[in-house]
Amino acid sequence: YNSNDCDPVIDPIWAIGCDCAGLVSRAWDLSYKRNTGGLTHSSLVNELEGYEYLLRGDIVNDTVGKHVAIFFDWAGVDTMEVIEETPPIAIKSEWPSSKYNNYTPYRYIYVQETSLQICGDANSDGLVTVGDVVWLIHYLFKGGPAPVPLCKANVNGDSIVSISDIVYLINYLFKGGNPPDPFCCS
Fold this sequence. Notes:
Strand content: 15-25%
Shape: elongated
Helix content: 10-25%
Radius of gyration: 18 Å
Mean pLDDT: 83
Order of helices and strands: HHEEEEEHEHH
Number of helices: 5
Structural class: alpha+beta
């Protein structure tokens, strides 16, 4: 790693991706490298109402603009997985809430939420993962947003979204249990 490689005047292509803001600039296919603060300009992003709205590819940016990371998935109820640049490489890291609570979540304006109705995909990211378990916990116990449509969370097919759906998803994801009811929204 050579700090001169990050100079956009010397090599404008390599500069996109050589630090945390460069990684996001490259991931979002921006025409030039933005700095950490520049990534949160309103012409590029919308601030999310909370962490529970994060989808893969969104960013979390610290409140003073010193570091930014790309959200990947939830690794637990209060632990997120992020992709971050630690020169000279990008790594996947797990951040507990004590680390990310100083960060603000944002979505690139050209990222569109999926409209698929995959049973079990409570957070609408197109996948059934622990992130959906986290979403349901936030919805049922912390006043978080409901899955859209709500029927996607009825993974056990009993027509009620409850803690039993959370248990069902956990059994499916971690214990080889039955997959979500494929007709949850039928």
